[in-house]
Amino acid sequence: MRAVYLDHAATTPLDLRVRRAMEPYLKSEFGNPSSLHRWGRRARMAIDAARETLAAALHADPAEICFVSSGTESCNLAVIGCALKAPANRRHILVSAVEHHCVLHAAEWLRPFGYEVEHIPVDRYGQVDPDAMRERIRDETWLVSVMHANNEIGTLQPVEAIARICKERGVWFHVDAVQTFGLLPVDVEAIGCDLLSVSAHKIYGPKGAGALYVRALTPLQPLMVGGGQERDRRAGTENVAGIVGFAEAVKLAEATRETEAQRLTQLRDRFIQTVRETIPNAILTGHPTERLPGNAHFRFVGVPADSLLIALDRAGIGASSGAACSAGSLEPSHVLLALGWDETAAQEGVRFTLGHDTTWDDLQYVVDVLCREVRRIRDKSTV
Ligand SMILES: Cc1ncc(COP(=O)(O)O)c(C=O)c1O
Questions:
Q1: d(C-alpha 188, C-alpha 190), whole Å
Q2: Angle, to 10 degrees, between the axis of helix 240-278 and the axis of helix 360-382?
Q3: pLDDT tens digit string along 291-348?
Q4: Contact between 195 and 215 (Cβ < 8 Å)
Q5: pLDDT at 331
Q6: In testing the pocket of ligand 1, which one of 105, 145, 202, 239 has its CB within 8 Å of the most ligand atoms?
Q7: How far is the CA of 28 from the CAs of 23, 46, 218, 236, 247, in angstroms?
Q8: Which domains does the chain have, with CATH numbers?
Q9: What share of the chain is helix, strand, coil (3-state, %, to 5)?
């Protein structure tokens, strides 16, 4: 059966070249980077080189890169770690309503410790209005967290404008760039943020590796304690193979970033146009142009996402809804609710995210299956 994977925002396959770069560190180069002998020193050198690669890609200083286990850990460390350094009269945290749960839940985690968490609303495209955010900043505000691009609907945020406001008001600013890094330019100087999160498995690197950019002098309480690894910001023996793989994935992504983004944007736009022309009541979600190159998200009115996703899977197509599946029922997506959708509509959102191997032929097949299945599900519900 034909197999078309269109869930690259969830994860990507490991690039063969990344696997090759990692292999020595899973075999002969097994040293602990903290050891002083030659095995340890070689592992340390590999991590140092990887740190330089990430720093160069992000336009940061190598000392500002802290390796962690995932995008989730990176966002947790940024939000909780920075908040824990807030003085008692600065415990107001602002996060956008469409953040990934690893930011939203990290902020919620702080509430019992006396922190006030406020959600910044978004417009119908999912964008934060910098002026509306400016109005929410108070003397007590310590940290703002707004993502670079949304993982469900692909909308890009005006992070540069938000960073300028944060700077003016003396507020720390975290950007979750897990969905953009490797696909769009992510330059911490151009953005002007203090903290920025990235993850390896979204860019054809291994699972279990991520990083947090920490601008010099940004307050950060470590969440892992033990040894002094990562300049006392994250204790624990480093995942050397994962870190080496992450750096290789970054190099590969940076080498083809512009051409790949262009190719994906063209494919995406053609796919969006074809779906809208051939399927009645297919509504594009998110911003028409300010969106991730490979993201196409639709609401198929009257078609529950879970039924459609099962039908697509049967036809060999891997897509997703932003909704979390719990106890067999779909929770409406918080992102779609934040756009102002009602609960029924928020259960009708389906996301297709394109990647390196996606071709127009694949997408044409997806359109054909979508046409058939959307009609079938709609017909069934009207019987
Ligand atoms: C925007 C965003 N932030 C954070 C994460 C978490 O990254 P990880 O899967 O590496 O924990 C994801 C993953 O889906 C994401 O899309």
A1: 6
A2: 60
A3: 999 999 999 999 999 999 999 999 999 999 965 554 455 688 999 999 999 999 999 9
A4: yes
A5: 81
A6: 202
A7: 9, 13, 37, 21, 19
A8: 4-11+257-382 (3.90.1150.10), 16-252 (3.40.640.10)
A9: 45, 15, 40
Please state, in angstroms and as integers, the Cα–Cα distance from residue 328 to each residue in 21, 307, 319, 323, 383, following that order. 40, 12, 18, 12, 24
Q: What amino acid occupies position 216?
A: A
**What is the DSSP annotation of 12-73?**
-PPPHHHHHHHHHHHTT----TT-SSHHHHHHHHHHHHHHHHHHHHHT--GGGEEEES-HHH
Closest ligand 1 atom, residue 207 Cα: 10
Ligand 1 environment, Cβ below 6 A: 70-72, 75, 100, 102, 147, 151, 176, 178-179, 199, 201, 210
- Mutation choice for ligand 1 from 151, 335, 353, CB with most ligand atoms inside 8 A: 151
